[in-house]
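All the exercises in this workshop are built on plain-text protein records. Sequence and backbone structure share a record, each on its own labelled line. The structure tokens are whole numbers drawn from a learned vocabulary of backbone shapes. The record below serves as our worked example for the rest of this section.
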Amino acid sequence: MSITLDKDTDTATLPERIRRFPFPFLGDQYRYSANVEPANKNVPTDAGAWGAGLIDIDEFYHKELADREAILARDPSRMAVLPHMRPAVWDTIATLLPAMAAEYPDIMSFHREGNACRWQNKLQDLDVQFTVGDDDSLPTGPLRFLGTQIQDDIVLLDIRDNTMWLDAGLVTFAADWSFNFDVGMSFLEIHGPVPRVKEENIISRAEQFLMRLQPGEQFRRTNWTMTVGNRLDTSTETYPEWGPDRGTIATDPDMPDKLHLRVEVQHLIRLPHTGVLLFLIRSYLLPLRDIAKVPTWRQKFGHVLAELPDDMAEYKGIIRYRKAASDWLLAG
């Protein structure tokens, strides 16, 4: 059943990229919060729905995986595994591949007997056998292999000394941060630059919540920013390629098509065997032009941008164009 948007439009006429988009705003204001909820719960929106499963495979699957391969070929530092995290990488594979096979039984399958596994992915005409714990049983190694199967970025946090440490991951689609710079840092060190979160005790509360997760538990949250151009790789390493566009987009007549709302759906999973915390970061882009096709989204996002405090707008890198974006959205 479709939802009526106005007298001329309903959700059935909207492209899939809009109907599946995880629009993050419930009201006309935004402030930092943990906004954590249980995973695997369908979330209806004014355009459709999102979030029914753990791993989302959409129309951009092949393109995004090809982008990831190109990024890793240029910059291998986007992947790192400290030696003590090898078991956690295999724990991640043993957790995610069965979940994907259960969620997409027509195109994926996973069979395991002891440590011997067989993974089939019809989207890639792939049929591979490997042994859990044997890095050489996968030609590219386990973490790189997993990065060829899911669109999500992967971050693994070890828990020791009463805190969490970013000790492994594969991150090709960072939003204005550097995975390579953060490897080896603690959870609090990584989030230190975020305005307001220290004063409002958000990060320490989030850390305590995450460390209390039990093995196998799965939660999620959303985060958002804006991106000029349809590109997921806005890491600090590539800033010269996209940073200057922030200063010109406000006066660009093509702003509604070039300026995107970027939403991350972050899954938070306590791995069942190693107890390591797995962060999956799935990023979505939608241009203002598409957002405006859903009247409630147009209004909410316009008001959020207009009301957002300057320090938060500065941190998100949107302060130079957020008024132009808000004005366009609210002009209706």
